[in-house]
Amino acid sequence: MRALLVDGSAPGGLRLGTAPDPRPEAGQALVRVTAVSLNHSDLGYPGAPDGTVLGLDAAGVVERAAADGSGPAVGTPVVTLGFDGAAAELRAVPTDWIGTVPAGADPGAVGTVPVAGASALRALRRLGPILGRRVLVTGATGGVGRYAVQLARLGGAHVVASTGDPERHGEGLRELGADEVVAGPSELGEPVAGVVDTVGGGQLVEAYAKLGEHGVLVSVGRVTGEGEHFPFAALSGHLPGHHDRSVTSFFLGHCAGLAPDLTWLAGRVAAGVLDAGIAWRGGWDEVETAVEALRERRLHGKAVLELKG
């Protein structure tokens, strides 16, 4: 089968080549991929050997149903999650990481759901009830951030979106559902009940300082390369407003029951309730262009490769 392979000598570190067809296990379906949504982790894990097929997010159609009878039937449009193998014509996927997709939905759009959409959904659930409460989303123009802004608004929160360039991105974030747009957590006036942090480093520390009592910060990702250094007494609960605040880590791969979440999210994207935020779309022979844009962080949204022909 054709696939995008790790190649340290190729521009961007990936090249179009061939790889053996996957052999599904009993609890896996074989999916013919039609679209791949790129994440920063798809640009090459440190030490990934040449020939590795990367990719987490992919949409397609079930080619062979799981042998154990679980999951969708042959011919079902689906969206899939995995730690690798997305950027290929065929993908073997555990059925609990497969969501079904409405007929006629845009594969490129629903293909953005697995990592970004499901991470945002699970992070917001970790905050607890958000109806009528203030929620901060950092890195709000990124893939997870965009979904978090929209889902928090659907959940009834007062959404504060943080972005490095409010003048440029403020209008778009408000269209997605943000009630306020700030340049960073330090600009917040009133405290917030919850934070979905996709940045890490100093911004995570600043965001934690803005939590009110009983507030929760969910650390979804880090893009700064910085560590988190809290000032003296930042974690002292006896200080005014500091009681019972927490920071929690997050890893989508350890979440159970993802199939219904992927199905629900894909349905909302297909219905136009959620904006997939595709910032770049092209054929998989254009992967070098997409990789360059991602590495230089020129894309505020998702990059989608369509696997055709």
Summed up:
The chain has helices at residues 107-110, 113-127, 143-154, 166-176, 201-209, 258-270, 287-295, and strands at residues 2-6, 14-18, 28-38, 57-64, 77-81, 90-94, 98-100, 134-137, 158-162, 180-182, 192-197, 211-219, 246-248, 278-283, 302-306.
Which CATH class of the largest domain applies here? Alpha Beta
Uncertain stretches: none
Strand content: 25-35%
CATH superfamily of the largest domain: Medium-chain alcohol dehydrogenases, catalytic domain
Helical percentage? 10-25%
Number of strands: 15
Query: What is the end-to-end distance?
Result: 12 Å
- Largest sheet features: 7 strands, mixed
**Radius of gyration computed on alpha carbons:** 20 Å
Tell the overall outline: globular
CATH third-tier fold name of the largest domain: Quinone Oxidoreductase, Chain A, domain 1
The assigned structural class equals alpha/beta
